[in-house]
Amino acid sequence: MQRLLLILWLALAAPAYAQDNIETATARVMIEALAPSSYGDWAYDWGAVSIRVSRHMHWHLPDPDPRGRPEHAEVRRTGWIGASGAQVGVAALGAEYGVRLLAFNFGGGDDRDALFAALRAAGAQIDVVSESNRSGRYVLAAPERDAAILDRTLSCTPPGSRAARRCWTDYTLTFPGRGAPG
User: Fold this and answer.
1) Residue 134 CA: distances (Å) to CA of 20, 118, 170
2) Cβ within 8 Å of residue 105, ≥6 positions away
3) How far apart are CA 81 and CA 104, in angstroms?
4) 170 - beta bridge partners?
5) Residue 135 clears pLDDT 50, i.e. is over it
6) Alpha carbons 31 and 123: distance in angstroms, whole number
7) Which residues lie below 8 Å from residue 107, measured CB to CB, with a gap of 6+?
8) CB-CB contact of 24 with 84 (8 Å)
């Protein structure tokens, strides 16, 4: 009986976002990755970005010890967002000074409408810079947070290839001062 009560308590105490769909979970990470406007030069340091997003996603082990790494070497950390039985791959890229961008890989084709609806439902604003069926560039903004550039690219295996036909969408969120609006 005690085990049953413990299991029931854990199920009820689980965070509400654990039941989110993958677009809602990804929207949360994208918005949390944007630094509050009041942050200083350290807003996109590895630690600052990690603290904002890590409770909403899973990281693989970080890069090896940075000692001996060239000053401008690219640093990459990978992980994933999981929700409702689906996953989105995440890669953080930058240098020792901090994170330049987050890249998100959706493996199920074009999910732009669902992701953008989730971003808007979470309070974000998406302004179109350019857009076509297969790609787009947007400015992603959230109240009291830095704006960033969000690029979307839809890719598919070529028709007639020996590989099974599949499509995926990549989103790249580039942070201010690192190629995005400030």
Assistant:
1) 26, 20, 10
2) 88, 89, 90, 91, 168, 169, 170
3) 9
4) 105, 153
5) yes
6) 9
7) 87, 88, 89, 166, 168
8) no
* 104 to 1, 51, 58, 122, 173: CA distances (angstroms): 43, 18, 13, 18, 8
pLDDT digits (tens, 9 = 90+) for 33-88: 999 988 888 899 999 999 999 999 999 866 656 677 777 788 899 999 999 889 99
How many CB atoms within 10 Å of residue 172? 20
Query: Which tokens belong to 61?
Result: 């082990």
CB 31 within 8 A of CB 22: no
Place of tokens 């969120």: 173
Q: What percent of the chain is modeled with pLDDT above 70?
A: 84
Paired sense of beta strands 135-141 and 125-131, if any? antiparallel
φ, ψ of residue 66 in degrees (nearest 5): -75, -10
Long-range contact pairs involving 170-173 (C-beta distance under 8 Å, separation at least 24): 170/103, 170/104, 170/105, 170/106, 171/30, 171/103, 171/104, 171/106, 171/115, 172/101, 172/102, 172/103, 172/104, 173/30, 173/33, 173/101, 173/102, 173/103, 173/104, 173/140, 173/148, 173/149
